[in-house]
What we know:
The chain has 20 helices and no strands. The protein has a single domain, classed as Hydantoin permease. The relative contact order is 0.19. The chain has helices spanning 34-43, 46-54, 62-73, 76-89, 93-96, 98-101, 103-139, 146-166, 168-193, 214-232, 250-276, 284-287, 296-326, 332-353, 356-364, 367-384, 391-394, 411-427, 436-440, 447-469. By secondary structure, the chain is mainly alpha-helical.
Amino acid sequence: MTIPPDIPSDRFGQVEQHGIDRVPDAELHGRPHELFAVWAASNTTYIFVVVGGALPLLGLNVAQSCAAIVLGNAFWVLVGLLAASGATSGTPGSVIMRAMFGVRANRINLVVSIWLISVAYEAINLSIGALASFALIEQAGLHVTLAAKLAVVIVTAAVTLTISVYGHATIVRLSGPFTFVLAVGFALLAGFVWPHADFAAPLAHSNIAAPQGAAFWAAFFAGITLVASGPLSWSASADYARYLPPTTSPFAIALWTGLGGFVPCVLLSFVGVLAATAVNMTDPQTAFKAILPGWFYPVFLLLIAASSVTNNVLNAYSSGLSLQAIGIKAARATTVLWDGAIAVALTIYALVISNFLETLSAALELSVSLLGPSLAIYGADLLLRRNRYDGHALVDETPGSAYWFDRGINWSGVTAQCVGTVAALLCVNTSVLVGPVAKALGGADLSTIIGPIVGAGTYTAMVALKVRRRKEAVLF
């Protein structure tokens, strides 16, 4: 469908027409403060209560858990920084990354480091929302049949995908109300948790002795890694800033994006930590029932389901853009639906057929080893270029493109990603893999620190060497 030139293609209630193409200058609009609600709506979600509640299960007390939460969420600074590239280029993050990896190599990068992980998170969010909905149905005195389970998953996905298909303007308009409603609901949850919090015996419900020495640092860094997996999963922050005029302050874009993620993630994780001093957070959904008023428990379940939807809206939207950037020649609305169908299939398989969800969650523990270096390389490139990205050149996928590099491969980015990922894997400590560095340090997982530093450092060094040798044109 062709939009007449006098009608904006990005407006509330109309399916967004732009995908990975550059947004025309005439259609640039909006203000950076709108980004706060976009990111707050997506991150005011129950999963961060669970993350906070998991930290005392590692043996950390309240103060230590809160410190890990703040440090892990510091990666929102990087997510905010990357968002500024969207306004400069007028393109989504999946296209901007061609500047780091090259047109061809970026397709592989998107499949491995971005799209697969995004779909996995979509499936997990759908599963969390579905389980809460199942409990809500049981609260109503009804039996949850197989047909009911399938219906819940499909309806939840349909609501999510409808918003994602309508796209940017609809997401921005709905984010404010979503944020308000979810914030009120979770504020009530915090109010009911607070009187039960036991600061004098913070580990009473974890059944774990407080770790000492090397064991403490292993637990502390494991907590930071767990928390950091949240912001590190958002490499597509430029997607929601690309409609802003290029003259928009990069600082304002970074600030509102970063705060939109940091504030709810930190506050909700704090609630989870406090809840862990009152109930056993190994089964948080059921455990909360013991400290919540009877009338609020169904509201709590509804909050879980609703927040899983708002979190998945951005996941599905950006995943659809990634599929286009990978090379699938279809409209953005179509790729969003394809992406959603895969996530639904994974969710149904996990909830109805097998314990695949546990396998998926275990695999995602390693995602930080890919995402950390990738985001750090992106950030290094942005700083080296001083956020100067040519949107017209970025959407050019031909060998004549300024971002074609060596047969479609920017070896600086590819090498840095590989080296950074290997460095992270050497330092990782998960249920799937324990790296030799982590073993030597008594289990301390430094992957969230080492991976990004090595990745960004390698990229910066290789770009500097390339410029010095003048062997090819480099856009800095």
